[in-house]
Amino acid sequence: MVLDKIFSGACMTQIKKGSLKVVGTGIHVVNQTTISARNHMEKADVVYCAVPGPTAAHWIASLNPNVVSLIDFYTEGRCRVDIYRDIIDAMANAVRDGQQVVAVFYGHPGVFVTPTHKVMKILRDEGYEVSMDPGVSAEDCLVADLGIDPGMTGTQAMEATQFLFYRHHINPHHLLILWQVSLSGEHTLKFMPQGESVRGLEVLTESLLSYYPPDHEVILYEAATMPMMAPRIEPMALQDLPKSKPTLISTLVVPSIGLPEFDTQTMAKLGISIEDVMAPVKG
């Protein structure tokens, strides 16, 4: 009987599988981390984290001392593909070793975080339990800080270099959000020293001028990362964008030029007139 219990316990240990939970800290980290994300961090066997600044890292370590920083993988001049591969391998191997792993990323863990999507697919295909909790993203902060309702005009959002490299067709009647504007035109997947983005901004501006007038107001935006900080909200004329000084976390916000004309033919099929639509607005 004793041997049976020992054998049974050994088998349970051998078949134990690890798991991966991916969570986000939000932009303000401590203030915007959800209760669910915090609970996962506290209960994890190991926490892998990629958060900016020592304050956020220390706070996570106070919840669980077994923390592995992923920031150490990011070094200037190193290709991001290699960085992501090493991060993915580190997290996946910990899960394969049977550990309950929590991966913590700044903001929303599924927005512009390539390693999370890739490692989740790898581990899911291998039969491990994986899941992701949503987090407060920079776009969520942008909506709050700028007082912009994306539902009023519709929204287009993409990475700035992707906008330049592919034949995207912008609708200037929509709100346009361009992420990582300081890396416009960067194709080597390496981290550029700050201040090398002038040529990219010039080309980006030239492309946008085919949709918007030169004096159209655009906004360089950065969400505040600490509770006592103010967000960066820097309006300027589109033609002046090349003179601006974006950082690695800067986002370019291009407001709508206004709603397009009514599609009266389609409205007629629905039995609706322009007056019908405008009546609630006037009232």
Describe the structure.
- The protein is α/β, with parallel strands linked by helices and 283 residues long.
- Helix content is 38%, strand content 18%.
- The protein is built from eleven helices and ten strands.
- The strands form two sheets. Strands 3-2-4-1-5 form a five-stranded parallel beta sheet, with helices on both faces.
- Helix 4 packs parallel to helix 5 (114-125).
- Mean pLDDT is 88; it is low at 10-15.
Question: What keyword list fits this structure?
Answer:
283 residues, alpha/beta, 11 helices, 38% helix, globular
Rg from alpha-carbon coordinates: 24 Å
The gross shape turns out to be globular
Summed up, the helix count is 11
| Record field, number of beta strands | 10
Widest sheet, order of strands: 3-2-4-1-5
Structural class by secondary-structure content: alpha/beta
Summarize the model shown.
This protein is α/β, with parallel strands linked by helices. The chain has helices spanning 2-15, 35-43, 54-63, 80-96, 114-125, 138-146, 150-153, 160-165, 198-208, 264-269, 274-282; strands spanning 19-24, 46-50, 67-69, 100-105, 129-132, 155-159, 175-179, 217-222, 232-237, 251-254.
